[in-house]
Amino acid sequence: MLDSHKINEISNKIKEIVGTSPLADVDKNINALLKGMFTKMELVSREEFDVQAEVLRNTRQKLELLEAKLAEIETKQKP
Predict the structure, then answer these.
(1) Do 37 and 2 share a structural domain?
(2) How much is the pLDDT for 28?
(3) Average pLDDT, consecutive stretches of 10 residues, N- to C-terminus, the chain (79 residues)
(4) Which residue segment(s) compose the domain that 61 sits in?
(5) Residues 3 and 24 in one domain
(6) Is 56 exposed, middle or buried (0-12, 13-18, 19+ CB in 10 A)?
(7) What is the reported pTM?
(8) Cα gap 24→11, rounded to integer Å
(9) Where are the alpha helices (DSSP H) in 1-79?
């Protein structure tokens, strides 16, 4: 999901535009609507993305080590 700061910033801009119109009653729901929309779009924050990218990097390194160990074991077992 997007950063809460960005959502609040977008929400505040919409509030400014809508503030003087009859749509002012919708004001309290704008933030919730935006969060719901971003959730449905399956967006993630940059921080979440970076964390998952690091997890993937670590997993790849472990896989490479295991593949190397397996290759070593296989060569030792060949007659």
Answers:
(1) yes
(2) 60
(3) 77 76 65 80 87 97 97 88
(4) 46-79
(5) yes
(6) exposed
(7) 0.50
(8) 13
(9) 4-18, 27-40, 46-77
